[in-house]
Amino acid sequence: MCGIVGYIGPREAVTVLLPALRRLEYRGYDSAGVATIHGKNLEVRKTAGKILQLEAILERSPVRGRVGIAHTRWATHGRPSDGNSHPHVDCASRLAIVHNGIIENYRELRKDLARDGHQFRSQTDTEVIAHLIERHRANGLAEGVRQAALQLQGAFAIACIAGDEPEVVVAVRRGSPPLVIGFGDSEVFLASDIPALLGETREIVVLEEGEMTVLTAKSVTLHTLDGHRVRRTHSIIPWDRDTAEKAGFPHSGFPHFMLKEIFEQPAAVRNTIRDRVDLEGGDIRIPEMGLTDRDLVGLNRLCFVACGTSLHAAMVGKYMVEAFARLPVEVDVASEFRYRKPVLDGRVLTVPISQSGETADTLAALREAREQGSRIVAVCNVLGSSVAREADGVLYTRAGIEIGVASTKAFTAQLTALFLLALKLGMARGFIDRALARHLTKGLWEVPDLMAGVLELNEEVEKVLAIGKVASRFAESKDFLYLGRGIHYPLALEGALKLKEISYIHAEGYPAGEMKHGPIALIDARMPVVAIAPKGPTYEKMAANIEEVKAREGIVIAVVTAGDGEVGGEADVVLPIPPAAHWLQPLLVAVPMQLLAYHIGVLKGCDVDQPRNLAKSVTVE
Ligand code: AGP
Predict the structure, then answer these.
(1) Which residue is closest in CA terms to ligand 1's atom 16?
(2) Distance, CA of 194 to chain centre
(3) Are the C-beta atoms of residues 74 and 27 closer than 8 Å to each other?
(4) What's the gap in Å between 180 CA and the centre of ligand 1?
(5) CA of 258 to the centre of ligand 1 (A)
(6) Looking at the annotation, which residues are catalytic?
(7) 416 Cβ inside 6 Å of ligand 1
(8) Which of 96, 100, 324, 567 could, after both became Cys, cross-link 422 (CB 3.0–4.6 A)?
(9) Of 488, 594, 483, which Cα lies nearest the Cα of 536?
(10) Nearest C-alpha to atom 3 of ligand 1 is from which residue?
(11) Ligand 1 centroid vs 309 CA: distance in angstroms?
């Protein structure tokens, strides 16, 4: 989950590497470092902490050179420290490497290299790579990297430069850690992720697993690790820099990416619907799935696999698909999928859901399903990502780049995509006729405007939280309980996850009906309870649960349908959402869940865009 960047060209490398690295800081921020080549000398600067600390060091002691690599770290082996920061160098400090991933056999390699006299300076798994390349580079840097890569076990993306070969950057990839090459005018860029390249180029090539590349300012060559030349057409990225910067609409200059992306949800939902719905005819068109209606009728099961927020979207998707298409649905935590030995075949549609498309557990689950002959249609937000490339078809969410580690707009875009998938399945399988489809898609089409209304809560929420005893009670709270029923139960899980990852407060999402089977024991005057109780099939039961909480002095923050004075009257804090069809309410309920976590996080002075111990996409299993 580290971020790697590289550059070779006419400009001072550091002027390109630092801005690119900043756009990858959501991948990890335990330490940062850069290495460049000036003449035949390697210049390395690195430090524990954020890129800001590295910039301060570079102020005092700049690096020079037109070739360079840089790194932002999410520590796995060796605690965050200056010594464990990347880049790592060989014994003679002639070459430097940066690495994303995990080297599983680093202990035995380290012992073997130490026996050979190699001196180690860090506790990381990564440093063995520098010494291994040093051992094998008699026939040049590229061959040294290739030989080293053949000896490494695990998943890795590596970039390497050497003072005595000042005109090249060599990179290699095995397993899921991604690497993208960007093409400029007599300059070439390398990065772990597309956002880092925005503003420099939109022309890219994705380095596939088991491939390596040699970059010079004028050329790029790709080879497999067994030496076969690879030719690949360039792709054009549909995004531009602004979408990756804080310049947003309607309020320019958001204080945090998370808030900017919360406000981008109406557009994300609208974009995900666009040209997939015929509002007049009531038809749903998703050709990119690559499945005919006949294929959809032939299915006998659907299997969602995902992690984190995407898993919560999958849980909502289950309610929709089973109701609209009467197709049995399983939802699996991707990291657990392989351990249950799932029984799949060609009549099962496996749907991996992933914002980044690089989450290793979800990728592993996809491969497990493929091995068993299941059809694979991914729901993904990143063009050309590993999950998207390995699936048979992709239902892209069109949320744009999501920088904030806490997923927000990608979540509601996923709910939109799953609503369309469920409708498509329901129509193909004859459970939803055009009239009902027209009614449901019309409701979906109205969601962005309803969401814009909910976003106005933002000021309201801030005012309520900032004033009155409730706010302080929230910020001091050690625990929160989130309750929901039916399609809102996954939203309770999502609300709890947002609060946990943004404010470091322990929070649990629970099916409200389970309360009396245990968690009710936790309720007292210090326990805030977020109850999701909009009008609908679960309303009465939720109202009863809220009374149970109030009977034990609990603090109730209720998400209710606007104007509902009954449940609203019971609650300490009311977060209203506009009336909407039951199946569409999760798209509206998500917003107050996100805003609550965001404002409590800000109140507590947390870094809401880069929460501790977290990273945007988890590329190791
Ligand atoms: C959510 O806010 C978290 N960032 C995390 O749980 C995330 O949803 C999970 O890692 C899955 O990521 P993906 O959708 O990119 O696969």
Answers:
(1) 354
(2) 13
(3) yes
(4) 21
(5) 14
(6) 2, 616
(7) no
(8) 324
(9) 488
(10) 406
(11) 5
Pocket perturbation via mutation, ligand 1, pick of 192, 356, 402 by most ligand atoms within 8 A of CB: 356
The pTM of this model reads 0.82
Q: At what angle do helices 585-603 and 489-503 cross, to 10 degrees?
A: 20
Within 9-66, strands assigned E span 31-38, 41-48
* CB 618 near ligand 1, within 6 Å: yes
User: Does residue 413 have its Cβ closer than 6 Å to ligand 1?
Assistant: no
H/E stretch holding 72 reads: strand 67-73
Q: Which residue has the tokens 């609650």?
A: 571
Reading the block at residue 456, the tokens are 């106005």
Give yes or no for a contact between 182 and 204, defined as CB atoms under 8 angstroms apart. Answer: yes
H/E stretch holding 262: helix 257-263
Tokens of 398: 């069109």
How far is Cα 139 from Cα 377, in angstroms, rounded to an integer? 44
Structure tokens belonging to residue 369: 């399903």
CA nearest to 90, candidates 28, 157, 144, 156: 144
CA distance readout (Å), 566 to 549, 558, 563: 15, 11, 9
Is the previous residue joined to 87 through a cis bond, with omega within 30 degrees of 0?
yes
Is the beta carbon of 369 within 6 A of some atom in ligand 1? no
Give the Å distance between the CA of 65 and the centre of ligand 1. 37
Percent share of the chain, pLDDT over 70: 94
Strands 188-191 and 283-284, bridge-based pairing = unpaired
Backbone angles phi, psi at 456, to 5 degrees: -65, -20
* 106-120, 235-249, 254-268, 580-594: least confidently modelled range: 235-249
Ligand 1 center–CA 66 separation, angstroms: 36
Q: What is the pLDDT of residues 437-495, one digit of tens each?
A: 999 999 999 999 999 989 877 665 444 445 566 667 788 889 999 999 999 999 999 99
Q: Residue 170: in which H helix or E strand, if any?
A: strand 165-174
d(CA 21, CA 26): 10
Average model confidence (pLDDT) for the chain?
Answer: 91
211-231 confidence digits (pLDDT tens): 999 999 989 999 999 999 999
Assess contact for 102 and 178: CB atoms under 8 A: no
C-alpha separations of 115 from 109, 136, 149, 486 in Å: 10, 16, 20, 61
Q: Residue holding tokens 């998370």?
A: 258
For ligand 1, pick from 256, 312, 359, 612 the residue to mutate: most ligand atoms within 8 Å of CB.
359
Would the CB of 355 count as within 6 Å of ligand 1?
yes
Helix 434-455 crosses helix 409-428 at what angle (to 10 degrees)? 170
